Amino acid sequence: MTLPPRAEPTVAELLEGFAERRVGALARAISWVEDGEEFAGELLDSLYEQTGNAWRTGLTGPPGAGKSTLSDVLVRYWAEKGSQAALIAVDPSSPFTGGALLGDRVRMDQALADAGVYVRSMANRGSLGGMSLATGAAADLCDAFGFPEIILETVGVGQAEVDIMAAVDVAVVVLTPQSGDGIQAMKAGLMEVGDLFVVNKADCAGADRLKHEIESILDLRQTPGPMPEVVTCSAKLGDGIQDVAIAIERRRKVMTESGFLETRRNTRALARIRRLLEGGLRAEIWSHAQMEGKAKAALADGARPDAIAAQLLNEVLKKVNVCDE
Ligand SMILES: Nc1nc2c(ncn2[C@@H]2O[C@H](COP(=O)(O)OP(=O)(O)O)[C@@H](O)[C@H]2O)c(=O)[nH]1
Ligand SMILES: [Mg+2]
Fold first, then answer.
1. Between 23 and 112, whose confidence is greater?
2. Taking a C-beta distance cutoff of 8 angstroms, is the pair 260, 239 a contact?
3. Domain containing 143: what range?
């Protein structure tokens, strides 16, 4: 027996769900964003005024560093203080893995849901503009829904993770004393993106040495903004969690008071506009039949591909200018 397809809610229905704080509405809204559903933009527009109240914390670092374990204890810590969290676990790796790396996360979900935490996994579905756009919009939805704390946890380290970290208020890089994590972090560009460094697995040997190693690397960094702190903890044993939470809190305070947070949020909004603009143009330009036809004709005439591209770009730019006037 096949079930009839489930009817999609309308924007108005989802807004009603948000007003009544129904988690099902939030879940569906995030799916809209993930799938690029046609009314997602309208929904986000309607909710925009309700955003800007949540803190966005990113957690990144090599697989196995303890990001899931740490985010788990952090959201519980916040929940106990009366600050409910939404936790978005992101696997931005190629669509082929289908988010397989999120498995460890899923196992923890039920217990967290029972503690009042909203948990959501997002995997790369090959979405236009990349995962940082989709996760940014998902965070906006959690923000509008009224979660005061939002955690974005990534599964690994790579350019996509760095992009996601650039879209949070405070980016926490989690490393461990094992496996030369300090060097790995440097290679992956995490030293520039981190606002706070957590040396997890402090119950294992070498945590203090790694802490000093990170501090000496940070001394050389030329990234704008206040200097990051390095704290140690053992997420699994629950040791030092308060230190991590307090360090996050301190970082927010420093960033707010120095005006750096506002700058960062503006930069984030601009980067988002630029990405969407470029993505939109990219999608439009080639599908424009004339472009492809012209390119084919020029190729048949024996013109050089780069020269054809430059010529076509010029034509597009001229058109844009005409529209300006
Ligand atoms: N010894 C020790 N193990 C930990 C600690 N935190 C996490 N782990 C373990 O490290 C492994 C990877 O943790 P996980 O949170 O899944 O890492 P993720 O891949 O970064 O999300 C798991 O087996 C955890 O139990 C810790 O503080 N000390
Ligand atoms: Mg994990």
1. 23
2. no
3. 51-270
